[in-house]
């Protein structure tokens, strides 16, 4: 079922979102100081391509630098990405068929708000990360 949902997601929403995140990652990697955000954009792009069966966990070893980077990201990009995911999520949840895809947009809100210090893992691998906060 996850594969079918991922394929439908890829055609209607995931490919366009991933291309947007890839473009943002390339722009961020042009400047040396914004490379961490560019790498985060590449991680989010892979998550946007295939979100079903994967989840985001917080890395405990991420330090103050990722917290400061998240604040900068939140101001310049996080708010706008979150508004986009929220709008698309609500629009997709209007129909019964679109509910899983709307929920996938809602699932992407935490990583679009604060991508640094997060890791994308398979859903079944959550038990391997007991020290993560859910």
Automatic annotation (TrEMBL):
Species name for this entry?
Streptomyces axinellae
**Keyword terms, alphabetized:** Membrane, Transmembrane, Transmembrane helix
Record's keyword annotation contains Aminoacyl-tRNA synthetase = no
Organism superkingdom: Bacteria
The protein depicted here goes by the name YccF domain-containing protein
Query: Signal peptide location in the record?
Result: none
Q: Which residues cross the membrane?
A: 30-50, 62-80, 86-106
The answer to whether keyword Phosphoprotein applies is no
Pfam families cross-referenced by the UniProt entry: YccF
Q: Which residues form the Inner membrane component domain?
A: 4-54, 69-118
């Amino acid at each position: 079922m996850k594969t079918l949902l991922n394929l439908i997601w890829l055609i209607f929403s995931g490919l366009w979102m991933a291309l947007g995140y890839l473009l943002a990652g390339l722009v961020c990697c042009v400047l040396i100081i914004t490379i961490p955000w560019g790498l985060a954009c590449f991680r989010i792009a892979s998550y946007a391509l295939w979100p079903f069966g994967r989840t985001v966990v917080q890395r405990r070893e991420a330090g103050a630098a990722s917290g400061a980077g998240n604040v900068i990201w939140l101001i310049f990009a996080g708010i706008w990405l979150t508004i986009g995911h929220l709008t698309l999520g609500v629009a997709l949840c209007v129909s019964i068929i679109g509910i899983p895809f709307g929920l996938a947009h809602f699932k992407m809100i935490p990583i679009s708000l604060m991508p640094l210090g997060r890791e994308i893992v398979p859903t079944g691998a959550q038990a391997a990360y007991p020290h993560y906060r859910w």
